[in-house]
Amino acid sequence: MSESSNKTNAPTKKQAYRLYAQFVLVGAALGAYYGIFYRPSDTPVLFVSVVLLSILSALLVTVIQIWKKGYAFKEILVIYLKSFAMFFLFLVMLWARPTVMEWGGKGWLIAFTTLVGGVIGFIMGLKKKPVAENPKGTKK
Hints:
This protein is mostly helical. The chain is 83% helix and 0% strand.
């Protein structure tokens, strides 16, 4: 019996790995885009606006995701925190680009935005994984 359960778990682990890899690569590619085609702006962005936009965006996404689905508070909190992390990292990346460009030049900027994009992709993969492994007949 343990062999059959091992065989059934192997494709699931492989699928989860592919899902993470797909999201990380897409996130890294988008991050690289934001680094490669960056052009400095004369208008500075306040860090407090980054935090407030992240809080509001995560709240909106969480409300949309949980609408009429009966999640427990702990699950709602996890959904909110993952959403907040994703938005916050993205907006911090955009906010920090001028500073990174000054410190290290275009190469460091591209590396920075690619890395942050990959992390955001990983977080999106974490948000997607439970849906892919959910058995039929249960709520998402």
